[in-house]
Amino acid sequence: MSGLDTLLPVTILDPWPAPRVLAPVDVTVSLPGSKSLTNRALLLAAIADGPSVVRRALRSRDTLLMAGALTAIGATVDTSGDDWTVTPGAFDRDAAVDCGLAGTVMRFVPPVAALSTGAIAFDGDEHMRNRPVGEVLAALRALGIEISAGDRLPFTVHGTGSVPGGEVTVDASKSSQFISALLLAGARYEKGVDVRHVGAPVPSLPHIEMTVEMLRAQGVAVDTSEADRWTVAPGRVAPVDLAIEPDLSNAAPFLALAAVSGGSVTVRDWPRHTTQAGDALRQILADMGCTVSLSHDGLTVEGPESLNGVELDLHDVGELAPAIAALCALATTPSRLVGIEHIRGHETDRLAALATELTALGAQVTELQDGLEITPAPLHGGVFHTYADHRMAHAGVIIGAAVDGIRVENVGTTSKTFPDFASFWSGLLPGEL
Ligand SMILES: O=C(O)C1=C[C@@H](OP(=O)(O)O)[C@@H](O)[C@H](O)C1
Ligand SMILES: C=C(OP(=O)(O)O)C(=O)O
To answer: Where is the Enolpyruvate transferase domain (predicted)?
Structure first.
């Protein structure tokens, strides 16, 4: 397993005493790059028709796993600097791909591996064997690819060097990544790819918009004129030269610091136009009573005297749910978060994990099939378990900022998308520990 332990500070205690914030904070932060943008850029670069550069790439477990996967199948990825270079190569060898716990690696790489003449074996962390991928494998089989084993990790893709492509139907109600996966590789299929979704509504639509926007930026023609249908024309993928935006979903715990302390937090370089789901934080935090402003300094959130509860459908932005749920547990009125059954298939069953951990600290939480009802109650200290889920750790540190005696178990799991998160977080709060 690529634990990438070198990314983790060795001195972080486990469980980690989360810094308590005793006065309003007033900080400005620059955050690492977006996981979703970095991994799409790397993948497109590997199937482009010339060398690429991914500027200010996120250096984290998920992105290094993507770089490792693309290198294993035949691309050359230089991750030594802040700007990563990618040189496409022949996909002509047998290889093993470690997906870790990265959905973007497990779902996005197999459709590219299908272009190889080698046998590409995929596996990952133990929990990754529970995360859904069968719909992508079934689609690839329908497009003529041989894949051994069933519908979960581990599996092996046996490419023949080319993929006919064409029409395929997918039920993407469990993850938008099933659609993105097929679209990202589709231009390199002989007939392109024409993907229809049939099933309950697709979650996380901004992530599909991100895929489509990035494909178009590389000169790929994508037709989205019909609902639940995406058509990618066959053709070249132009070399990538992209500067990665800060990860707006990972901004959630930082902006939450302003919300819970009644202080002010500015995240630099917040993009004016973006397809990142995390941009929804602006409206969500305003709904909770924060003052939110976007200026040339970045996005500034000022916390209110007391936080409002909210009723939200997070279907489009489910990756924000853990941080929002933590804020709801610290609000003064009840909240209801719905539309997020699919996050039971994320790094852990996030609805069950949030209900368990918030309840253990004294919150009143009802777990719904597709969400959470959270009624504020006085919280007390304790260990906040993270289930190897970076966003559960973010939820834990948010609670810990506002409640005495919170210790976050395995805070190092944040390395999935944020290098050295715990040190960065405590460095923002000097003298307040
Ligand atoms: O395509 C992507 O980069 C992602 C899509 C979303 O997945 P789901 O559609 O499975 O929620 C999101 O939650 C995940 O963090 C990243
Ligand atoms: C769901 C997430 O990740 P993944 O890309 O592994 O699906 C996430 O980061 O919240």
So the answer is: 24-422
Helix (H) or strand (E) holding 265: strand 264-267
* pLDDT tens digits, one per residue of 74-87: 999 999 999 999 99
Per-residue pLDDT, 11: 72
What's the rounded Cα separation, in Å, for the pair 301 and 323?
15
CA of 205 to the centre of ligand 1 (A): 9
Residue 346 alpha carbon, nearest atom of ligand 2: 1
Residue 3, helix vs strand vs coil: coil
Q: Is 319 in the pocket of ligand 2 (CB under 6 A)?
A: yes
Q: Is 96 inside a domain boundary?
A: yes
pTM over 0.95: yes
Residues sharing a CB contact under 8 Å with residue 414, sequence separation 6 or more, in sequence order: 390, 393, 394, 421, 422
The answer to whether residues 29 and 53 belong to one domain is: no
Q: Tell which residue, 245, 255, 244, 285, has the closest CA to residue 428.
A: 255
Same domain, 54 and 13: no
pLDDT of residue 430: 64
Sign, CA dihedral 69-71-76-82, equals: positive
Check whether the bond before 15 is cis (ω within 30° of 0): yes
pLDDT tens digits, one per residue of 379-417: 999 999 999 999 999 999 999 999 999 999 999 999 999
What CATH code is carried by the domain that includes residue 142?
3.65.10.10
Total count of domains within the chain: 2
Which mutation among 128, 175, 275 tests ligand 1's pocket best, with the greatest number of atoms within 8 A of CB?
Answer: 175
Residue with the smallest CA separation from ligand 1 atom 13 is: 319
CA distance 85 to 321: 34
Q: Does 177 reside within a domain?
A: yes
Q: What is the CA radius of gyration of the chain?
A: 21
The residue among 209, 232, 255 that closes a domain is 232
Domain range spanning residue 304? 5-33+245-427
Q: What is the pLDDT of residues 248-286, one digit of tens each?
A: 999 999 999 999 999 999 999 999 999 999 999 999 999
Asked whether residue 238 is assigned to any structural domain, the reply reads no
| Minimum-distance ligand 1 atom for the alpha carbon of 203 | 9
